[in-house]
Amino acid sequence: MAGLKELRNRIDAIKSTEKITSAMKMVSAAELRRAEELLDKSAVYRNNLYRAAGVAWQAVCREATENETAPLLPDICRERENGGKYLLVVLASDRGLCGSYNAVIVRTVTARVEELKAAGREVRLICLGSRGYNSLKRRYPDEIIRSAEAASAKGVDYAEAVALADEILQMFYRREADVCEIVYSRFRSAVSRDTQSRQVLPLLPTMLTEALPGEIYNGAFYDGEPDFASQLERLMPLALTEAVYDMMINSQASEQGARMASMDNATRNAKDMISKLTLRYNRLRQSAITTELTEIIAGAEAV
Fold it and tell me: N or C: which terminal CB in the chain sees fewer CB atoms within 10 Å?
């Protein structure tokens, strides 16, 4: 009977866990839908901004070719000679229970840092998300210059992207960083994501427009005021902020998708375990009942 009681308690405990994982799955699914809607809504503005920057870039390059001069580019677009200072911004999460989401990000950061150090580069890290920070601080305590909670903890806000873009841009202007890369998970679907390190400084318009469909320029004539060099000077900081914001909302969607998939697997495993334990419980109970009946019949026959 002690075995039956232990099995019953274990089944009840797993049922409670199943309810929790099922509830977390539904919450993550709702958060994922909101993140996907945010991605869709921001796509129109992002594509138009990138396209405008690409048109201005091509016009500046065309004018420079016609005048046989070097293109007049903003500071944000100029690659520095012998630029050996790298800044890596890590977008991880504050919470776990999302499968290998954070582990893959940490592995990507570690591989990139080791690659840069092997090439003789100086590396600094900004960690957004306690899970990433807790894993990286053991290996790179001196390289981490700042850590904070993940932007996706309360939902990504555009003001956070503006603040982060301004921070890395000021470090770039002060020559504290020659190159800035952001390590994040690009959202593909609820069960698919790509973890990558993407350069955002120096920011070339070709980096922004390479994913856009079709030709941007395609031989058409564009004109505008002020001149294209001034337009590019104004557009590129906006494009940087939008690129940072895009990576943040991709990270948010990827995290929620990973958590939803993880909780779905946990719920399925809990159900399977409950089914197996229930079958075992019923067999033990049947065996105990059979044993009691046998003893009763044997006693009656003895009398």
Answer: C
